[in-house]
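Worked example 2:
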Amino acid sequence: MIRDYNLAADRFRIPWDGHRYDRSDPKATDVPNQAINHAATFTECAADVAVAAVGALPPLGFIHEDSSNSFTLDIADLFRAEVTIPLAFKVARKALDEPGLNLERTLRREAAMEFRRGKLISHMIERIKELLHVDDSGGDSGGDTKCQ
């Protein structure tokens, strides 16, 4: 995962000293880390929708275990390298180029466009079905979801 951050930093010409975040003072960190935090939050929101859409239980995570939305966090993490990190660094670059830019608002808008364009929630739903070995091909059951 460290490699993904470094590659994105290089791609978007972002000075990068590593992923740091202080929950007690989120704005105390640099622009790239603030962007990562916001992008991760938006990706988790998409994962919330996907988890709810398949009727999975958010607390039953495989990797994350101590949260009421552990499974949601697991699903969001599956998309960290391909969605969250590039989105964060792309908007961080914009914020560094335009100091008055509202980082969170810009990230929210970019996330909405990227998620729609890339059909992120649909991809998350398919990944969840793969993970849970769900066969919803139908047969004469009218398309009911069946676990194998």
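Residues 2-15+27-120 form a domain with the Four Helix Bundle (Hemerythrin (Met), subunit A) fold (CATH 1.20.120.920). Helices lie at 2-11, 31-53, 70-78, 80-97, 103-117, 120-131.
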